[in-house]
Q: What sequence folds into this?
């Protein structure tokens, strides 16, 4: 093989690479052109404002309030069992019950607030011409139910506070009579009884 033939053979790889590059460039020129701001062909023609967000994300406190209530109720039950076994005092068990009732009231109040927000959102949609009348009727009924549950939780908390305040007053009086308690503790217990006294229901005319 002479020198000229060897040079030609060594030039084959370079020529092949050059042909591939020219072919790729020509093929790329044949592709459809797209401006930087234009959407791709496979992108759906939808805007973010077209997607209606789920209203539930606005009400995270409802779930937290429910969790807090369940935790407080579980603690109250455990404390009552421990009090029967003499592990914790009766005062501690009573305090756990009051905390559970307060957590229950907060949960019901949070549900009422959430139901009001939901109803307001539906009424706003109705004002825009959306057909949500049936949903509004359902939301109004749900709000009424939640308000009744909140009223029941309020009444239960008031009764429990009044009962435990009276029990504590009797306890402090007994301790004072035995020379263990103090007049200051009795006076504070009496103030608590007055603060938690449930006013009589108004009589119907």
A:
């Amino acid at each position: 093989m002479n020198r000229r033939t060897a040079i030609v053979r060594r030039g084959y790889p370079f020529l092949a690479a050059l042909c591939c590059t020219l072919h790729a460039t020509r093929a790329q020129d044949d592709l459809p052109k797209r401006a930087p701001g234009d959407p791709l062909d496979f992108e759906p023609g939808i805007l973010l404002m077209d997607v209606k967000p789920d209203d539930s994300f606005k009400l995270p406190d409802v779930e937290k309030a429910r969790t807090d209530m369940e935790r407080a109720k579980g603690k109250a039950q455990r404390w009552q069992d421990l009090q029967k076994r003499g592990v914790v005092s009766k005062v501690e068990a009573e305090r756990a019950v009051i905390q559970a009732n307060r957590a229950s009231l907060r949960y019901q109040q949070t549900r009422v607030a959430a139901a009001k927000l939901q109803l307001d959102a539906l009424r706003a949609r109705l004002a825009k011409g959306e057909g949500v009348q049936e949903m509004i009727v359902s939301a109004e009924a749900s709000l009424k139910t939640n308000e009744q549950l909140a009223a029941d939780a309020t009444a239960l908390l008031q009764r429990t506070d009044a009962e435990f305040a009276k029990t504590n007053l009797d306890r402090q009086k007994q301790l004072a009579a035995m020379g263990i308690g103090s007049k200051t503790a009795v006076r504070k217990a009496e103030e608590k009884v007055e603060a938690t006294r449930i006013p009589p229901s108004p009589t119907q005319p």
